[in-house]
Design brief:
It is built from six helices and no strands. It is an all-alpha fold.
Amino acid sequence: MLFLGVTISMKYWQTEQFSAIKQVSVRIMILIIIYIGLHFFKRLIYKKINWWDWLYYIALISVAMPVLFANSLNENLYHWVIDVGCIFFILPLLIDTYSWWKARKTDEK
């Protein structure tokens, strides 16, 4: 999942053209759908749902908003929204990794 989150985020962080944020490519859409599917699968496997497991919805909204609302007048705003929003593709996974590492350290003691 971390690979997908980083791949999606990097695509948007490297994007400079307005048309690239307005029209999401099929490849990125497939990666986003796989990312969502893995999150649902994770919720089936792990019964505990943490508060940070919902943060990736912010990233999904940040990717969808420019497609629906962006125009050439507010282009810079939506570049900023995507740049900040894509952090939330990665953040839940980093928190999960830290929690797992911390729990492992506690179990070893």
